[in-house]
Amino acid sequence: MLYAIMCEDVDDSLPLRQAARPAHLSRIQHLVDEGRLLAAGPHPALDTEEPGAAGFTGSLIIAEFDSLEAAQAWADSDPYMAAGVFRQVIVKPYKRVLP
Q1: Span between the terminal Cα atoms of the chain, in Å
Q2: List of long-range contacts for 73-82, beta carbons under 8 Å, 24+ apart
Q3: What's the pLDDT tens digit per position in 19-70?
């Protein structure tokens, strides 16, 4: 089943994100390689794709997992969690309808 992993950043998270980004992207790439990733990306702090020093306010990952527990465990072990980037992470089942 698909699960939405909705993450909210701490204030001024950009330096923390930058330090942990290579490990985070490597982990996301495993989902891609396994054909389990539907979408992933950050929420820019400004209404632009490149927010510069303003950074990001969170992230969204939609991927396939065997269970809610497996999705939560995956989210809990993300490098951004270990680096203190995320203030809050919510994991919910997701039903793709369109397209």
Answers
A1: 17
A2: 74/5, 75/5, 75/7, 78/24, 78/27, 79/20, 79/23, 79/24, 79/27, 80/7, 80/16, 80/17, 80/20, 80/24, 82/20
A3: 999 999 999 999 999 999 999 999 999 999 999 999 999 999 999 999 999 9
Question: Which pLDDT score is estimated for 88?
Answer: 97
Can you give the pTM of this predicted structure?
Answer: 0.95
Query: Coil, helix or strand for 7?
Result: strand
pLDDT of residue 57: 98
Ordered alpha helix ranges (H), 1-99: 14-33, 68-76, 79-82
pLDDT of residue 69: 98
Q: Which residues contact 85 (CB under 8 A, 6 or more apart)?
A: 7, 9, 10, 13, 16, 17, 20
Write the single-letter amino acid at 1: M
Beta carbons of 25 and 85 less than 8 angstroms apart: no
